[in-house]
Design goal:
The protein is mainly beta and 79 residues long. The protein has one helix at 18-24, and strands at 2-5, 8-11, 31-32, 39-40, 53-56, 59-63, 74-76.
């Protein structure tokens, strides 16, 4: 299946979540903090914190660690 990360088409495996998919591709910074611009990425990996939020299919603030990949998904990270 194919997903799009910041517009780039990438081959993916259905069984992965978004966080795992991005980490495997060495995308460690998923967003930056609002006021100081500090980098954030995967931290807890179980959906408790909000460090891994990304935009998925145009919907902001989605937790990458608990969102399952789908064919054609569009993921935006702000690194």
């Amino acid at each position: 299946m194919k997903v799009f990360v910041n517009g780039a088409e990438i081959e993916a495996t259905e069984s992965e979540n978004v966080g795992t998919f991005l980490l495997k591709r060495r995308q460690q910074v998923l967003r930056k903090t609002r006021f100081e611009g500090n980098p954030r990425g995967m931290f807890c990996g179980i959906g408790v914190c909000f460090d891994c939020i990304v935009t998925i299919d145009g919907i902001a603030n989605q937790r990458a660690c608990i969102t399952q990949l789908r064919d054609g998904m569009r993921i935006e990270v702000t690194s």
